[in-house]
Amino acid sequence: MQRTIALALLLAFLITMAAARTTTAPEILGIRLGMKYAKAHARLAKLGHFKSEDEGQEVWTLNGDKRYQYAIVGFDRDRKVRYVTVLARPDGQPVNYEQIGDITRAARTGQTGNLRYTWKLNDEKEHFEYIVMAAGKDAHRLDRFSIKLLGAKGEEDEEEDARRAPANKKGR
Question: What is the pTM (predicted TM-score) of this model?
Answer without folding.
Answer: 0.76
